[in-house]
Amino acid sequence: MRRGRRLCLLLAILLVVLLASPSLPLQARGPVQEDAAARLLARMPPAARVGQLFVVTFPGTKIEEGTDIYQLIVEERIGGVLLTPENGNILNQGDTLLQVATLTNGLQHLAWEASQKPIRPGPGEEGATTLAPFVPLFIAVKGGGIENLYTAPISGTTPLPPPMALGATWDPTNAQTVGAILGQELNSLGINLLLGPSLDVLNTPRPGTPADLGVRSFGGDPYWVSRIGKAYIQGVHEGSGGRVAVVPGHFPGLGAADRPLTEEVSTVQKSLEQLKQIELAPFFAATGAEDPLARPDGLLVSHIRYRGFQGNIYASTKPVSFDPQALQQLMALPELAPWREDGGLTVADELGVRAVRRFYDPTEQAFNGLRVARDAFVAGNDLLILSHFASTDEWDAHFDNIRTTIAFFREKYATDPTFQAWVDQAVLRILRLKLRLYGEPFALTDVQVDYDAIPEEVGRLAEQVAPITQAAVTLLSPPSPDLRPPPPAADERIVIFTDDRQIKPCAGCSATHIIPPTLLEETLVRLYGPQATDQVSPGQVVSFTFNDLLDYLAAPQPITEESGTPSPPHPVQIALERADWVLFAMLDVTDQVPPSTAIRRFLAEQADLLKNKRVVVFAFGAPYYLDTTEIAKLSAYFGLYGHTAPFVEAAARALFDEFPFTGASPVSIVSLNYDLIVQTQPDPDQEIRIFYQVGEEPIESTEGTPQPAEISQGDTLRLRTSVILDRNGHPVPDGTPVEFIFTYPQEGLEHTVQVTTRDGVAEAMITLDRVGQLQVSVRAEPHPRTVGLEVEIREGEPAVIVTVTPTPTPVPPTPTPTAPPSAEATSPPTFPTLQPGETPTAVDTEVNSRDLALGLGSALLVAFVGYLAYWALRRDPIGSLRVGLWSVAGGLLGYIGLAARIPGMAWVRQHAGEWSAPIAALL
Predict the structure, then answer these.
(1) Is the pTM of this model over 0.85?
(2) Is 574 inside a domain boundary?
(3) Hey, how many other C-beta atoms are within 10 angstroms of the C-beta on 92?
């Protein structure tokens, strides 16, 4: 009996373990293994650890001893710097490439110099004066849509398309190419941290408002922003040889913001579930990318708040960058947690911008930088960007606040064990990223650049960009190229109006035009003038600015003087009266820049001057600034999405019809009734075909001809569609619903399986368990139902499959099944499921907790019956218990076979449904 009790105890333990197993962790948690970053961290004194948390801005290019930036690097051991043209770090005059490389080399040398000097303990810090190991600086720039709308690029680098231009090509390889060029050139200049690209989804454009993102977004569809964004990130990593870290923004998404990021903290009324569908989708896709090169190294956490983030529409978060609960809740999401655990960095966006100052003090009378930095760090940010870090524009106040903040962090590190642990965790992530960039051990020679190699590596790849700019060109109106006017003739006069907005390419630079007023004219003459094809005569082309147009609109009629002699007409009026063609080169339209509205005023007030003339608008910014009435007055409306010289040349070539217009707007345009949701739906006019295979090898068949196949009753047929295209001619986004419709016409039975696409293709499976005819149709709304396959299943003979040339057919009413005469005739067709990772079908073969309970219950029932039966025959308690245990073991083996989908058990699952688990256990 004692032995029987032990066996019963073992059986009870076995059952408890089995019942508890679903809640066990998939991975055992143990101590973090010692790695290079941990070893490096152990050698760093507290001051060096704290300093790694900060990336700062500074003015100019002077970094010698006695400057503030020298002290911050050598004495305070900061972790990095942010270079911007506005602060005078990038001069954009003279030999800018050499200037930037000299600056980055000098900054890294200061970091090395710091490692040769001992660190004295600060107040509250223990220990003797020590040396800290050399750790390279992060040297960061903004790019890929993170920078201001018209920030000047580094002079001498390759002019690159903005994000929206890449989105308009709908081709991720173009983004990868541009990212590779950017990565190569940044690495050649000693820049190792890119704050970009922007992964914001511009699903609701806000033309003319301060929150307008313009061309700084890849587009308005989360799927395409995800694909193009991942390709861009991968390109930067590849082009730089893994030496440039990529930190995209603006996490968790700025597309729905209604305020400019730097001026005021926006409040977006969206729940977390809504954010997952649109704003967060590109960040999920990037951090979860299969290719490690497509994953970002960090995320730029923006200053944006949400109402209803946790479901309560009356509750608002603090800005995510300062809200520990919100940011940590986001980082704990299953889509982000693995990336975070693998070392993903969180970077707090610029902490001194006006939006932050106004949030903490609406009166803007004071700025508590210490509190701002502490809140951002405690929220969960690893790296803090201290930029504009004062209530005024005075650099002395900026640096005083930085020193005060660093001193506070050092004191807190020395006195607060929890804070110390947070700092060590953040610094560990920072060190791991720097080790990924440069390897172990850090050496000054590895982080400094070769001046002689710069001319060969930077600014030499414009020929790779030209095809991309042309691929982005979009004929927005008219809807067909056949409706646009032919190119200008040699004897026709052309008048050009150009937005003459100016920017300062650097702090001390003179203002320059974003688009030089005569650039389009010069490009037309260069490409089509007397020295080229002689289609344009220089004397027939005249250029004006938008300011000239405003001057004309202010006095549209000739003025009569007191003497009665009329004043001469305005030059703009004279040119317009003689013109055959009127071209407008526009940027964005905003009331904050009055000349930008000149084109809209002219079309409203002087449209009569355009009669019998060809009027063409080139939108070198976003394509959504003109309304329907204004567009109706144009002969052609082109979207270019970029304002640099390559885009101006693409505009000239588009005017002369040199290439097909394959681009399509990646954002909705209300004035053109261009809805991106509609455009990315399946094209109803396309042909969707159905392909099939059995097992792993595809079966070939002749279209339209019955073909014997090595398949018969009871076999499973795998089905897939051809690539389903949207209305722009590109694969539909992942997750697009598609229906496979299986019809048995002889019996009036029909079954529909809804699946979703992946890479534009939908898949399903069906078991051929019925004799007779089977039609396989596919429907992808708004694409009508089409018949793709006809299958004749013969008992004891191979099935005959005919691939039908799809033709759209009306959707018939669903037949109402009548009671068939026999049980065999009434058995419904079965539809097995694909393996994990493939498109799901109607039948779920995954086991769940209910199946486990039923399976165990059945096994225990059999064990109890077996125990009683053996006891009745032999009266042997040990033998009876042995029979019971064998019965339990057999039942569990049956259940495991069902869960593992061994051959034969799939049939049980298909036919028994929810009772498959107890049946498998009984078998």
Answers:
(1) no
(2) yes
(3) 21
